[in-house]
Write a structure and sequence with these properties.
heterodimer, A: about 180 residues, mainly beta, 3 helices, B: alpha+beta, elongated
């Protein structure tokens, strides 16, 4: 399965109702509505993508805290009074680190992923909390692909280590549910 | 603060109700970098959304759950593990009820495991309490 459809997600959208093909700036969203689409390539299980680097900065911590209702004043503190390294990130800030590059999957022509997806589950395992100033080296990997009825489940793993000390910091596992045509209605 | 001597199985976190409106969802998109139009574009959502309309990010509900757990545990550095299952989609404009309950206390490890949830008013689990948990370090 999957191989014959490889690359289809790059085709332009077809007619139907109003449909945005491009949103959020450069990131393309191209929901595929191919009939009975089983698209993911199981040979991609275990594939590791090149690591990316993420720096935990003050303003992103503030934005994330505000967006999730965190009222601890440390996230709005004056930089002259609270050093960046003193700010411990909210645990789920790890999503900014680990899930900000999902296009890695979409852009992989060997994988066959598309934007007709939802988030099925999310796990974070912390070796230590993230802090302001952390520079993390994050390695994404396709941990698993399986089919469940008309859906396909992809487990996306991102392992983050301290880029300086190489010590593990957090590992994220995201199950992403890809829908074939109309499967979620 | 979650004190080792005081925490017991069955203890509940204070429940909290949170309205997730379109502004909250757009703010979360900006903060997290998740700009999937499923969360803000009604025309796009009409085609692909599980509900037929715009829905809040699952991670926004998880973020609120994490916030409540963090406050109970006494700080973000106390949270060892979060593992949640998203079940029901949360329509933009819905109110979720956030909660948690201690299901296990490991005296030797000094940790507590909690079942956690974020539920719609009809009881549907946006964060499904049967399959969502947090592990925190006790003081």
């Amino acid at each position: 399965m999957g191989h014959a459809r490889r690359g289809r997600s790059r085709r332009p959208c077809r007619g139907g109702r109003r449909r945005r093909c491009v949103a959020g700036g450069a990131r393309p969203f191209r929901p595929r509505r191919e009939e009975g689409a089983i698209a993911l390539n199981p040979e991609r299980i275990g594939h590791t993508y090149p690591p990316f680097t993420y720096e935990v900065c003050r303003e992103k911590l503030r934005e994330y805290a505000e967006a999730t209702g965190v009222t601890d004043p440390i996230y709005r503190a004056d930089p002259r009074e609270v050093a960046l390294e003193e700010i411990v990130a909210p645990p789920t800030f790890a999503a900014c680190v680990c899930l900000g590059r999902l296009e890695t999957l979409i852009d992989d022509p060997e994988l066959g992923a598309h934007w007709n997806l939802v988030h099925g589950s999310q796990a974070f395992a912390f070796q230590r909390a993230l802090r302001g100033g952390d520079v993390l080296r994050c390695t994404p990997r396709v941990a698993d692909i399986s089919a469940k009825g008309p859906m396909e489940l992809l487990t996306y793993e991102v392992a983050c280590v301290d880029a300086t000390t190489e010590e593990p910091v957090v590992t994220a596992h995201s199950v992403i549910v890809f829908f074939a045509d109309g499967a979620h209605r | 603060m979650a004190d080792r001597a005081a925490v017991a199985v069955g203890d509940r976190l204070p429940e909290e109700r949170v309205l997730l409106d379109q502004g909250d969802v757009i703010r979360y998109a900006g903060a997290s970098g998740d700009f999937n139009p499923l969360h803000w574009d009604a025309g796009f959502a009409a085609d692909v959304s599980p509900t037929g309309g715009v829905i809040a990010h699952g991670m926004l509900s998880m973020g609120h759950v994490s916030r409540v757990v963090t406050a109970w545990a006494g700080g973000p550095e106390k949270v060892r593990e979060l593992d949640v299952s998203f079940r029901a989609a949360c329509p933009v404009g819905a109110t979720i009820t956030i909660g948690g309950e201690v299901t296990e206390v490991d005296e030797a490890a000094g940790t507590a495991t909690l079942s956690v949830w974020a539920e719609l008013d009809d009881g549907a689990g946006v964060v499904d309490r049967r399959r969502s948990r947090a592990v925190v370090v006790l003081d």
